[in-house]
Design a protein that fits this description.
With about 280 residues, the chain is of the alpha+beta class. Helix content is about 25%, strand content about 35%. Strands 1, 2, 3, 4, 5, 6, 7, 8, 9, 10, 11, 12 and 13 form a 13-stranded mixed sheet that branches. The relative contact order is 0.18.
Length: about 280
């Protein structure tokens, strides 16, 4: 089959297509992820189009001049193995330029990503699933009661670069709760967000200074959606995060390989108990 297609940017009114395709792939994105993702870097959203039909997608989000993150890399089944994916990925790489380009790929495909795209394996992320009993935590406050710049500073300490545009939307999206632990010095010691997904709710990010605070935030977030299915994506090197999921009777259902084209950013993985999203880092 000879394909004739063009690579172009995705328009705002087409963002829902990527979210729906991610759902079809079993990735269970948040219902409002597009609302949060697209404004960060609209120029990084790409698709392959044939005769007016989108047949493949991919996103490279440039956060600043040093760091980019890829996601939503999908080609429709009939059009795979014909170079469509590579052309989309080439557009993503060109957009990312000389930045350190990160991504969460299918774990079994990491060797291919390394050989063909120059990615280096950093560590594994594990997705956990369970129906849990949470409990309201009186020590937690809403993120909306915290000065945004203070929350942004804490978030930036746990992410490769500042992500103001994203965070503003992430904590204000519909059908979500964002809770913060403030210590006696009125400094943030942890925060987490839970959002509605196609199946259940997903927690991310979950950043905390220590496992006890992380567990308190975790229980507080779960309490906001009693009886619902909960998902949590943990970096495998954070053994305390893995243990928290296991002790909460969650089951591992999926894994990704976190990869970068340059050296892995120096992040406090022992304080990262929940990944924000596999599509944006």
């Amino acid at each position: 089959m000879i394909l004739s297609y063009t690579i172009r940017n995705i328009r705002k009114d087409e963002v829902h297509i990527l979210i729906e395709w991610a759902r079809d792939e079993g990735w269970n994105p948040g219902l409002h992820d597009g609302f949060c993702h697209y404004p960060v870097d609209p120029a990084g959203w790409f698709c392959a189009e044939q005769n007016g039909e989108i047949i493949g997608t991919g996103v490279a989000t440039n956060y600043d001049e040093t760091f980019s993150f890829g996601g939503f890399y999908i080609v429709k089944e009939p059009y795979r193995h014909h170079g469509v994916g590579w052309d989309i990925f080439s557009a993503m790489q060109t957009h990312a330029g000389e930045r350190n380009f990160g991504g969460d790929g299918v774990y079994e495909m990491q060797d291919k990503y390394a050989a063909h795209a120059g990615f280096h394996y950093a560590y594994r992320n594990i997705r956990w699933k369970g129906v849990l009993d949470g409990k309201e935590q009186p020590d937690l406050v809403s993120a909306h009661d915290i000065p945004f710049d203070t929350l942004l500073a804490y978030d930036t300490a746990h992410f490769p670069v500042e992500r103001k545009v994203f965070l503003e939307r992430w904590i204000n999206q519909p059908e979500c709760s964002a809770l913060v632990w403030v210590n006696r010095d009125e400094k943030i010691s942890g925060y987490g967000v839970i959002r509605k997904c196609y199946e259940g709710y997903k927690i991310g990010p979950l950043f905390a200074d220590n496992p006890d605070i992380a567990h308190t935030i975790f229980k507080g977030l779960v309490a906001t959606v009693p009886g619902e299915i909960i998902f949590l994506d943990t970096p495998e090197p954070n053994s305390a995060a893995v243990r928290m999921a296991q002790e909460s009777s969650m089951v591992a259902v999926f894994g990704t390989a976190r990869m970068y084209t340059k050296a892995a950013p120096l992040l406090p993985l022992h304080e990262i108990f929940g990944v924000t999203t596999f599509e944006l880092g």
